[in-house]
Automatic annotation (TrEMBL):
GO MF annotation list: antiporter activity; xenobiotic transmembrane transporter activity
Species annotation: Gossypium australe
Protein name per the record: Protein DETOXIFICATION
GO annotations of cellular component type: membrane
Main location: membrane
Membrane topology: Multi-pass membrane protein
Annotated InterPro entries: MATE_euk, MATE_fam
Family of the protein in this entry: Belongs to the multi antimicrobial extrusion (MATE) (TC 2.A.66.1) family.
GO BP: xenobiotic detoxification by transmembrane export across the plasma membrane
Transmembrane segments: 40-57, 77-98, 119-139, 159-177, 189-208, 220-239, 260-279, 299-321, 333-354, 374-394, 406-429, 435-455
Keyword rRNA-binding appears in the UniProt entry: no
Length: 489
């Protein structure tokens, strides 16, 4: 009886302690959330500016070429779209493997591995560029073969031919971006990207309007500016003292990581490409509609903007595997913070787009028909900005966790079982034309966002936290270096 009374007394004394501790944890969680929003915003703001300045190279070239005429705009737009489908999307997707590899290496404090992984990625991506450049040589003929307008196809083929140097520059630039992003070294990327953009604007104007190259000048300007961007970052990596800890000498060890890189790069590329290709397919389908020059021009204008917002949203999600090493709660808070910032950003952006819908088209073209069509599409694009920004963050979370294969399945189902079929039905059967194509693909984006949200909600952050240690010890055991004490816990 006495023992029972003592036990009850102890439980009664313990209850308020537990309540106080729970309240304290709740306060800490809210404080951590606010702090993480500040931290993510501090990183995401400059990173968005980096992505903007880098992607604006294509946007500015499209704008300037568009003022040469409707044919120049449609041909350059379809060339840039095809360059994205067959080249840039593949390289970007493969480079995203470093979000897992570099994140794990940084979280496990294997700093030299960041440099080695980066060299391996650059070497592998340059190898991939060789067959891609051969494909680009015959792109004009391929467009005619699949039924595109011969005149548009011929001009697009010339444009993409001069983008081949940009392909190799992109293969160098994207791994370097992941190298700096993993370490939160945003300032050098911001400086280098802004410098190359500052060179690109007058260079593109001179090549398009003054050199006689016209639309080809826009492609040449993109290639030159992309190489400047890659060279600036490479020089900073090699000579800056801030990279001393992670900079590694170029040795034969980079070849040892090729198999591991492709193990993550292939599903990562599939994940990125399946989504990117669905939007590019929208541009190609628009070429089969009546008045293809108008349909292709308008959809390309809005697609350029939407892809930009999607990439920007992806930049707000941090390399979560490296960040959550031993800190599962912190990783969970980072995801919520990234989503919160993205929602606020997209509300501002979509509101601004809607408010400027009547004048936005003049940025790309002087044709009244094009401007009016751009205005009609604006409300649909505002909704698309919100959807694609959200899924951009959720996709970044999946890649950070090494779940590229799951993301690939989600994108395959969302876009190719839902989005593309709905787009084809609305555009060609119900005669909604370009509006139908856009609504259909965005139905796929909605499906994708829901599925990725479900996947993210199922993440066990405790397991993800420990996977960094486990992964690092497996690698050390393979190299005969033993294991760390954390592996025994």
């Amino acid at each position: 009886m006495v023992d029972s009374l003592k036990k009850n007394s102890m439980e009664e004394n313990l209850i308020p302690k537990l309540e106080n501790e729970e309240k304290s944890n709740r306060r800490l969680s809210w404080a951590a959330f606010v702090e993480e929003i500040k931290r993510v915003g501090y990183l995401a703001g400059p990173m968005v500016a980096v992505t903007l300045s880098q992607y604006l190279l294509q946007v500015i070239s499209t704008m300037m070429v568009g003022h040469l005429g409707e044919l120049a705009l449609s041909s350059s737009a379809i060339a840039i779209s095809l360059a994205g489908v067959t080249g840039f999307s593949l390289l970007l997707g493969m480079a995203c493997a470093l979000e897992t590899l570099c994140g794990q290496a940084y979280g496990a404090q294997q700093y030299q591995k960041l440099g080695i992984h980066t060299y391996t990625a650059i070497f592998c991506l340059i190898l991939v560029c060789i067959p891609l450049s051969v494909l680009w040589l015959y792109m004009g003929r391929l467009l005619v073969f699949i039924g595109q307008d011969p005149l548009i196809s011929q001009e697009a083929g010339k444009f993409i031919l001069w983008l081949i140097p940009a392909l190799f520059a992109y293969a160098t630039f994207q791994p370097l971006v992941r190298y700096f992003q993993t370490q939160s070294l945003i300032t050098p990327m911001l400086i280098c990207s802004c410098a190359s953009l500052g060179v690109h604007i007058p260079l593109c104007w001179a090549l398009v309007f003054k050199s006689g190259l016209e639309n080809i000048g826009g492609a040449l300007a993109i290639s030159i500016s992309n190489w400047l961007n890659a060279i600036f970052l490479a020089l900073y990596m090699w000579y800056s003292p801030t990279c001393t800890k992670t900079r590694a000498p170029v040795t034969m060890e980079l070849f040892q990581g090729i198999r591991e890189f492709f193990r993550f790069a292939i599903p990562s590329a599939v994940m990125i490409c399946l989504e990117w290709w669905s939007f590019e397919l929208l541009i190609l389908l628009s070429g089969l509609l009546p008045n293809p020059e108008l349909e292709t021009s308008v959809l390309s204008v809005w697609y350029v903007q939407l892809l930009l917002f999607w990439i920007d949203a992806s930049c707000t999600s941090r390399s979560l595997i490296g960040y959550c090493a031993g800190k599962p709660q912190a990783a969970r808070v980072a995801v919520y913070a990234a989503l919160t910032i993205t929602v606020l950003e997209t509300l501002i952006v979509s509101g601004s787009l809607f408010a400027s819908r009547r004048v936005f088209g003049y940025v790309y073209s002087n044709e009244k028909e094009v401007v009016d069509y751009v205005t009609t599409m604006a409300p649909l694009v505002c909704v698309s900005v919100i959807l694609d920004s959200l899924q951009g963050v959720l996709s970044g979370v999946a890649r950070g966790c090494g779940w590229q294969h799951i993301g690939a399945y989600v994108n395959l189902g969302a876009f190719y079982l839902v989005g593309i079929p709905v787009a084809a039905i609305l555009a060609f059967w119900l005669q909604l034309k370009g509006v139908g194509l856009w609504i259909g693909v965005q139905s796929g984006a909605f499906t994708q966002t829901i599925l990725l949200a479900i996947v993210t909600s199922c993440i066990n952050w405790e397991n993800q936290s420990q996977s960094v240690i486990f992964y690092d010890n497996c690698r050390q055991l393979k190299q005969g270096k033993g294991y760390s004490k954390e592996a025994l816990r």
